[in-house]
Every structure is written in structure tokens, then in C-alpha cells.
Known about the structure:
- By secondary structure, chain A is α/β, with parallel strands linked by helices.
- Chain A has a domain at 7-119 and 213-228: Thiolase/Chalcone synthase (Peroxisomal Thiolase, Chain A, domain 1).
- Chain A contains 12 helices and 12 strands.
- Chain B is mainly β.
- Chain B has a single domain (6-10, 19-145), classed as CATH 2.40.50.840.
- In chain B, the strands form 2 sheets. A 5-stranded antiparallel β-sheet of chain B has the order 7-6-5-8-9, covered by helices on one side. In chain B, strands 3-2-4 form a 3-stranded antiparallel β-sheet.
- In chain B, a hairpin with a 4-residue loop joins β6 (94-101) and β7 (106-111).
- The longest helix of chain B is centred in the first third of the chain and has 9 residues, at 25-33.
- Chain B starts with 16 loop residues before the first strand and ends with a strand.
- The mean pLDDT of chain B is 95.
- Chains A and B meet through β5, α4 and β6 of A and β1, β5, β6 and β7 of B.
- β5 of chain A pairs parallel with β1 (17-18) of chain B.
Amino acid sequence: MRPDRTAVIAGVALSDYPKAPHLTSHGHHAQALQRVLEESGMQLQDVDGYMSVGTGGMNVDDLATMSEYFRIRHRWSEGTQTGGAAYMGFVDHAKTVIESGSCDTVLMTYGSDLRSNKRRSLAPKTADGFVESPRCYENPYGPTILGNYALAAQRHMYEFGTTLEQLAEIAVSTRLHAGNNPLALNREPLSIADVINAPRVADPLGKWDACVVTDGGAALIMTTLERARDLKQKPIYILGSASAQTHWNIGQMPDYTTTAAAISGPRAFAQAGITPGDIDTAQLYDSFTITVMLLLEGLGFCERGEGGAFVQDGKLRPGGALPTNTDGGGLSSCHPGMRGVFTLIEAVLQLRGQAGIRQVPDAKLAVACGSGGILSCISTLILGKDQP
Amino acid sequence: MTLLSDAIAKEIPGRPVPFVDADNKPFYDGCARGELLLQRCVDTGKFQFYPRPCSVYTGGKVEWVKSSGQGIVHTFTVIRRNYPEPYLEPVTPYVVAMIEVAEGVRMMSNVTGCELEDIKIGMQVAVYFRCVSEALQIFLPFWRPAG
């Protein structure tokens, strides 16, 4: 009988967060690597594929540098920069490569000291006083990162009557989850009033509509089901995976209330043969409250424009119908610059039943969805506890 | 009420200025002459922004066409606190908007010359041009209420 080459997630690990002044960006990669080898039972010399992606401003090193750093002799590598969607895209690509036989075991690492290293910044580098095309058509007008997302939020409120209270519910439900994660940066309760009464930063969004700034890193290992059977953890299955892109800079977004989740979501659900109603827990990139609302709509949890009504009954909260961002998300727990990998890892922990006091009871199906750029690249993964 | 002054439509120390290259030189030259130039796809007649040497519709040729300079506010935000661009703090608050230009493209800009509270999605605006670098003679398009 031929070995079962079904690609599975066989190991996940996080480095120290949310504040880790003792770790460099590289140190986050290294600590996460050590932890994922330990928890999975995999050996570094078994790794023949590697995935990592750099970001200039945050000084997260690129694939080639990190391959050298760990001295990985990869047969296949992947470093496509789609921002926060990259890690879901990586899993999508690695699945194909493992199942085709091009390589057997793929490692992914990420690390960032964005909070502790004050030299880091999300700001674009314009040291010589110039900004090049295509950023030169936006940057001089001072949009700011939060302002970019506010353009989408404002349009959503205009088209659909979405309220600040409905957006605030996403910050509140995420904070409640953070209360169940001892490591989360912000755990104190937050009310709807707290969120909407906080000073506006970029109308209509305020301080609590935005993610935190932390340190953090992660590692993940994928291999064949055959190999995973000899390892320490129960394998997690990739039931559906898809990626799509509509633009990169916010000024080029074709429709400010529709993201590429409306493309990658339905494709991933169709592959998995399930519907959003079957999902036990959602891990959705939450750079800002509006990001979550647009992803929920795009993935098909509700109709376009109905995200406000969908969230306002508290279904994203602990114990709700769709517990979402159960580790406290980027809004309250951990966001070192590219959060994508953390949504993926939280989904795996939930499906393994290893999420501790924040465990969603009997979680069998999870969606992890990454948004990269400015609502630009959206990659969707449907993960399962049981073999399909 | 807060009047949106044109302070953001002036030279601001520390603000990066566009790097003028072969692809966008006609656009910025137009701005300096007080003309908003857009690219039109030769094959389909559809407009595109930002400047590229090929059509986003066909990959084929594009030609430069003078815009009417009229538009509407498609969406906007009021920037009240600046991160990570502290050089704009002196001109805060200001409005960043996506302008839907009459020819069918959208471009980011600032809207000035009205009360902040009066900015609305759908409001009609007209383009104007200001120098943001005396030394380099770089002009940018800005927008204010039409009429």
C-alpha cells in the first residue's frame, strides 16, 4: 500500500509574547522553532521545505536570510509577501507540494520584535524625502494605517447603516476572549461605551477599533499523514484552502465593502464540502474591527452588509454561536505586525482540544482567514480535527 | 465647527514628495500646469489611475487625456491623530478622501475649503493644484467643494 501523503499540520508553537525584550526578531523565530520541534517530535534535519516572509519596515528577515540562519537545505521554499494573508497562503501551497511528493516536511517560522525594538516601525521608509510609485499617489495625503481602514468602515456605515456600536461589539467580544488567555496584552473588561467614547483616531474608528502592538513569533510544521502518525500530536487536516487578491494599496480597492474573502472563502468552503454554519470557531485576522466584519461577510457567515446585525447579539463572544478570535486576537492579545500565523495556530490548538480555559467545547471545524495589505489579499483555510 | 484649511495643501517639512519617474512625469507635469491628466486605454476607452505604461484592461496602449477635474467623495476619513506620520501633526485634523473622478477612476486626496462637519459621501468636489516642494516644483492635486 502506498504511504498516505495527505498533508497535515503536525506541529505548532508560539514564542514569548506580548512583551519579549529578551528576544530579537531572529530570536522569536529560533525560540518558536525549538518549541515546535519539541512539541511535534520532528527533527530539524527532517525539514526539506521552508516558508518564511520578510517585511522591510518591521525588519522581519526574508526567506533567504532565514534559510541561512537555520541552515535549512530546502528542496522547496516559499516566501510570497501577501502580508497577513501569507501564512494561510503558505499552508495552501505547501499542501500541494507535500501531496505531489516534491518534499515531505515543511517548516514555517515568523518572528517580530515590533514592540520592544523602538527602531521598528510600520511606517514606510522614505529616508531620502521621496516616495515612489505607486505609494506616491497616497502617502503625501497622510492617510495613516488606521485611516486606510476607516475609508472602508465609513463606506460600510454609509451603504448599510452599520453603527459604531456594532463595530464596537467586535472589540468587546475579542476582549472577553482575551480575558481567558493569561498571556493576552489587554485583558481588563471593555464595554461598548468604552469603545465608542474613546477618542476618534481616524473617523469613524477610534483607539479600541485598532490592534495592539506587540512582540511575537510562531512556528508550524506540515508533513504527510504517514509521517505524522509517528509524531507526538494529533494531526490537523486541511479541508479547504484558497487565496485571492483584489488590490494592494487602499486607493485601488475596487469596492470598499467587499474583500477577496468573497472569492477565497466560498472556494475554500466548497473544497471542504461544508458551509459557514458548520464552523465551530473562527479565527479571523483582526487588524481592526472593520476587518473582522468584512471577513465575516465575505466568507459567507452573513450576507454582504449584514455584518453589523450578525455580530451585535454577541455570537462572537465566549460561549456564543461562533466564538471568534478565541486567544484575544490582534485587537487585545498579540499583533507583532503580521498576525496571520497566530490565527492559524489558535485554530489548530482549538481543534486539538489544547486551548485550556478558552477551549471551544468539541471543536471539530475551524476557519482561519488572513487579510494582508489593506483588506487586499485574503487567504482562507478550513481546518478539521477528523480525517475527511 | 472646524474649517478645513488648505494647510495640508502646502509644502510641509518632512512630508515625502512623489518621486517623478518616466511613468508618472506627464501626470506631475500636468499638475504643475493646473491640468489633471488621466490615462485612457486605447482599445477600450476606459480610464485608469494611477499611471502605468500599459492598460489594466488589455495590457495594451494607453493615452493621456485631460480630466474634467470634477468628482464626488466616494468615502473619507477625518485624521485626528497621526501615526506614524508626525510631520502632519501641525495640519491635523484633515480629511483623506477617495475621490471618484467624473471619468470613472478613483484617487486618494485631501478635501479642504469647507467645514469638517459638512464633508459627506456623495458631495461634489473640484480639483485644484498646489506646490508641495518649491525646490523641486512638484505640484499635487487637491479637492474642494464644487461651485
